[in-house]
Amino acid sequence: MKRNDVGNYERSSAGGEVVQAFVPEPLPPIEPIVMDASRQRLLERATIALGKLDSITLLLPDPDIFLYAYVRKEAVLSSQIEGTQSSLNDLLEHEVEGSIGVPLDDVTEVSQYVAALEHGIRRLKEGFPLSNRLIREMHATLLAHGRGSSKQPGEFRRSQNWIGGTRPGNAFFVPPPPHRVSECMSDLEKFLHDRLQPYPTLIKAALAHVQFETIHPFLDGNGRLGRLLISFILYHDGLISQPLLYLSLYFKEHRSYYYDLLNRVRTEGDWERWVDFFLEGVEQMALDAVSRARQLVAQIQKDQAHISREGGRGANSMLRILDCFSHRPIETIKGISTTTVLSYPSISNALKRLEKMGIVREITGGKRNRLFRYDEYMKILNA
Questions:
Q1: Which residue from 22, 68, 194, 255 has the highest number of Cβ atoms inside 10 Å of its Cβ?
Q2: 304 belongs to a structural domain
Q3: What is the pLDDT of residues 233-271, one digit of tens each?
Q4: Are 182 and 45 within one domain?
Q5: Helix/strand/coil (H, E, C) string of the chain?
């Protein structure tokens, strides 16, 4: 559906060129989104899938078994969209050992994404509102180290940016001029807390994501924060009790169409096609997370049974070590000792037996500070 009142253009200067910068109208759209029977069904299916995702945490013996690794998987995927090369395995090794085989800047970016996410969730749990102040705090954490540390961490941009193209004059899209950023973000914040706005939380999150990406309020990190904003809105509004829904994989798999839909909203006001795409993604990613959580629990239970059946006198130590790996799937003997309070010889003997059973694997070739990995756990996450 086409709309006329989606925004306006203002002259701005960037890189020595005069460009036409787009300033979006505040949310919600002046002409309401058409919620026909088909779109209502998509909304219902996405809401049901979210409910299944939220309830899965009640079935887990410890929600952190899933949350720790799933948050890090999202960090890797979201950062890969921005061009980093590090994998989930790289990140987990870096968190344990501090050195890996990929560029340090890459894994630092992913690690800072995790820190920004955890900072935001901690603040929300403390009762801090989902606000521009919180978004700036998260941005400061996101760009605290690595390649983005010179891009005004924690501050809305004071210069014109642009998206795509070789220079501002042939850019794919030019966001609002810097003097309009604070105003646009203030309007977005008001929308997030407007109890009279007509849309349910899922639709609100869909609209807010596009608006944030259109404003592009920072010099760097906009894509990663814009994707995080979706999960934070759902969490803040009580639609999910844990930050477990992430759409980076979905956006990555449909990257060209995703960017095309963002542009259609800006040029034609076609919110309906974007909302359909968004709701389909919520359903797919929620059900994917449910499936992976169930697979992880099943794998852990299978390995527990294997150990109990064949572990003999050492079964108790092996089960304690397996529990350690179910929370941190890559670990050192030192880390296991800290968690389990078992002696180094006991851990070493137990790990040898776990390796013979095919449950864990040493991945550093017998070096000092050896790393061990819970292979099947990682395969499920990376599938």
A1: 22
A2: no
A3: 999 999 998 888 899 999 999 999 999 999 999 999 999
A4: yes
A5: CCCCCCEEEEEEEECCEEEEEEEECCCCCCCCCCCCHHHHHHHHHHHHHHHHHHHHHHHCCCCHHHHHHHHHHHHHHHHHHCCCCCCHHHHHHHHHHCCCCCCHHHHHHHHHHHHHHHHHHHHHHCCCCCCHHHHHHHHHHHCCCCHHHHCCCCCCCCCCCCECCCCHHHCCECCCCHHHHHHHHHHHHHHHCCCCCCCCHHHHHHHHHHHHHHHCCCCCCHHHHHHHHHHHHHHHCCCCCCCCCCCHHHHHHCHHHHHHHHHHHHHHCCHHHHHHHHHHHHHHHHHHHHHHHHHHHHHHHHHHHHHHHHCHHHHHHHHHHHHHHHHCCEEEHHHHHHHHCCCHHHHHHHHHHHHHCCCEEECCCCCCCCEEEEHHHHHHHHC
